[in-house]
Here is the input.
Amino acid sequence: MARVTFFFDVGSPYAWLAAERVDTILPVTVGWQPVLLGGLFRAAGRGSWGVTADREAGMAEVSRRARERGLPAVRWPDPWPGDYLLAMRATTYAGRLGRAREFALAAFRAAFVGGVDLGRPENVTAVGRAVGLDPAELEAGAADPAVKHTLRAATDAAFALGVVGVPTVAVGDALFWGDDRLEDAAARLRGRAG
Here is the structure.
């Protein structure tokens, strides 16, 4: 069976849309891999649609997709996009504890359902507290140089695989970029299983 990895950044609303469905759409255990979207953008020489003329259309599209998927209405954090580096380091630390998926889902929901700015340290530790992580330990873990290195290395490794944005699902060597590609990834898995 092919290894399946879900690459995400909690600052991406499209990654939130995928995160809410990835474990139900894909018929296998999925590895949740935090990566820095900003690092992928820099490596690919591009930027976020959230700071371009496409911003309003993109936000409307995310809201439409959330409705179609039966998800709560989107409440955009202010500011968005923001600085999610601490949140992603905290997600990486939670991953060391075997809790990346749980922390990430809570962070996504805080940001895009609750409208919470995850650029604020107290909001990141509140997410941790909500999933049973000690706030002081989470803060210290996110500041650990080894955690910072792990996140940077994961981002570099993802880019080397061909990941240029999130959400991306890797099924073996095949990459499926976009929350609307989950079904394609599932079809690929069914094809391999059949």
